[in-house]
Amino acid sequence: MTENFTFHGQTTFINRPVDTVIRDFQNTHGSVPHEEDLAALLRAVLAAPLNEADREQAARTVVQVADDLAVPDPDAARNRLAALRATLTGAAGIAQPALDIISRILPLLGP
Q1: Which of 71, 85, 81 is nearest to 32 (CA)?
Q2: What does the H/E/C string look like for 19-50?
Q3: Distance (Å, whole) CA 98 – CA 86
Q4: How far is Cα 75 from Cα 10, in angstroms, rounded to an integer?
């Protein structure tokens, strides 16, 4: 599957296949707790039938969660995941897989 993604900031995805984006994410955030779940969440977001702005924001949020966990700042990661969950709740086609992943990660970050 190839689609064009344009994001600005620390993570840049421009005209790259989803698998390449995921591999780059894993290379950058490979030592972050819950990296596999975050990579799966990023894949779900990039493949989602969202409008471009929502997809961009959701992908940025996943990267920011990984950055928060690298620090570590589980409170910030938890807040971002909660906001992402709220955003994705109404999104057709992505809500359930993404929400399942978020539900697995949130309890591991503490109260």
Answers
A1: 71
A2: HHHHHHHHHHCCCCCCHHHHHHHHHHHHCCCC
A3: 11
A4: 21
Beta strands in the chain, from DSSP E residues, in sequence order: none
Residue 21 identity: V
Report pLDDT digits (tens) over 34-57.
999 999 999 888 877 777 788 888
pLDDT in tens, 49-106: 777 788 888 889 999 999 999 999 999 999 999 999 888 876 665 667 788 888 888 8
Task: For residue 80, give the amino acid letter.
Answer: R
Question: CA 49 to CA 62: how far, in whole Å?
Answer: 17
Length of the chain in residues, anyone?
A: 111
Q: Sort 8 into a burial class: Cβ within 10 Å, 0-12 / 13-18 / 19+.
A: exposed
Structure token pair of residue 15: 């005209």
The three-point CA angle 34-106-81 to 5° equals 90
